[in-house]
Amino acid sequence: MSQRTFTISNVVGTDGCPTKFKVRGDGGHYKHSHASAARKACNQLCKLKNIKGQCAMIITVRETTQGSDKKELTYKVNRIKLKTPVILPGRPPMEYDTKVYSYKGAIPGCSKGLKKSPGPMRSKRSSHGKSSSAKTKKAKNH
Q1: How far apart are CA 38 and CA 24, in angstroms?
Q2: d(Cα 62, Cα 47) in Å, to the nearest integer?
């Protein structure tokens, strides 16, 4: 039997508001199960967004295995930072624990009335990321 394959069809924050992540045409390519695909996608997206602590989102996964019924399942995924990393020989230390919960019902609408801002995510070199020393130098010059 061949391995089952999955793709991500939707990602929103836990409050139902859209995220900066674009689910491109393919939405990624994951193997094994719906839950493991959601877990892997969450870890990738939290890393992409450079979140170091707790990260939570609602992810909808669709099966893409040839001959399957293309079923979609939704999960709430929480990633938390461990107090002490788990170290296994021959592997990098595991700093996070990711929990996947089945999400029943409709995904909530964005209650804040906010929209996703246009354009790509800000880079680390944005104007808001200036160090405090750069700000003080600018203040002294004026």
Answers
A1: 16
A2: 22
Side-chain-side CA neighbours of 60 within 13 Å: the count stands at 14
Residue pLDDT tens, the chain, 142 long: 568 888 888 888 888 887 766 665 556 778 888 888 888 888 888 888 888 888 889 988 888 888 888 888 899 999 998 899 899 999 988 889 889 998 888 887 877 666 655 545 555 555 554 555 554 455 555 5
Could you report how far apart the first and last alpha carbons of the chain are, in Å?
Answer: 70
Assess contact for 129 and 31: CB atoms under 8 A.
Answer: no
Long-range CB pairs of 110-118, under 8 A, 24+ apart, other chains included: 110/15, 110/16, 110/17, 110/18, 111/15, 111/16, 112/15, 112/17, 114/17, 115/18, 116/17, 116/18, 116/19, 116/20, 117/20
Provide φ and ψ at 140, rounded to 5°.
-70, -35
- The amino acid at residue 78 is N
